[in-house]
Amino acid sequence: MVGTLVLTRHGQSEWNKKNLVRNKLRELNLTSQFTGWKDPELTELGQQEALKGAGELKKYGYTHFDIAFTSALQRAQKTLEIQLKEIDQQGIRVVKDQALNERDYGDLTGLNKDDARAKFGEEQVHTWRRSFDVPPPGGESLKLTADRVLPFFNKEIKPLVEKGESVLVAAHGNSLRAVIMALEHLSPEEIINTELASGVPIVYKIDSDGKVIDKKILK
């Protein structure tokens, strides 16, 4: 029995957009805000990214899901809503749980990354961003994020996929990194350097033993 697990990172949010405007001369969004558990809406571009991802699902024939999961934050929920509507799957059960929320950035939340460097020092901010197990004050490291995400994933999502069901998950960069790390048996160094594009579905085929037998990135 082989199941299907599709992971999608939410599209661009309003906070992403504000920082892209501030960062016009640097095409990479290197100074975006630490959004974490704050709840900005999707931008028009973010909605388009979600729609494009749904188009890829249709293109490759991933248009039937048994259940969907998302976080407690509206940018992920809206991404899921757009994609389910586009593939005509609006009637399926949707589970919303804060276990799938983005990494909590604690005292960094709301700060532009340049402002955070000015306040805490470039080296310290780099450590918080790029280490696996050093959390910012009042927040979560990627390890702590995984400690929150994986029990929920292992209890609520993975068993469904192992039974052969098709499951769609719309969440966040770091909550999805935790899942990917577990599925692909990646090291802390490898997962820290794993980038997830907004709205782009990642499709895993998983057997009854929980082993990944195929992976596709639909873009």
UniProtKB/TrEMBL annotation:
Q: Which residues form the active site?
A: H10 (tele-phosphohistidine intermediate), E102 (proton donor/acceptor)
Q: Which GO terms describe its biological process?
A: glycolytic process
Residues binding substrate? 9-16, 35-36, 75, 102-105, 113, 129-130, 173-174
> Looking at the Swiss-Prot or TrEMBL record, what is one Pfam family this protein matches?
His_Phos_1
Q: Which UniProt keywords apply?
A: Glycolysis, Isomerase
Recorded source organism is Malassezia psittaci
State which Enzyme Commission number(s) the record gives: 5.4.2.11
User: Which named protein is this?
Assistant: Phosphoglycerate mutase
Protein family (similarity comment): Belongs to the phosphoglycerate mutase family. BPG-dependent PGAM subfamily.
